[in-house]
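Ticket #4471: structure export looks truncated?
Reporter: QA, pipeline team
Priority: medium

Steps to reproduce: submit the single chain below to the structure queue and open the exported record.
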Amino acid sequence: MAIAARTMDRDLAGASAAVTKEMADAPRRIAGMAVTARVPGAFDTRERAKPEAAAHACPVHRALAAPVVMAFQWPG
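Actual output as written to the record:
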């Protein structure tokens, strides 16, 4: 997200993320994850699209076997 924001001359300073995981048994493993990213600053709908798309295309996100649900908060 930060790289995408930099290409737009925007800063994501103060951004944070909260991650929760859902565990499964037999075998014990991570069954799913939920990530909520909170990004302060005034971003309009168009400006939000590029960093959100970058988060969904992240190689780490794509490497996880468990489904990951992402939510974004833009408190502006």
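Status: closed, not a bug. The export was complete when the record was re-opened. Leaving a note from the reviewer for reference: The beta strands are 16-24, 29-38, 68-73.
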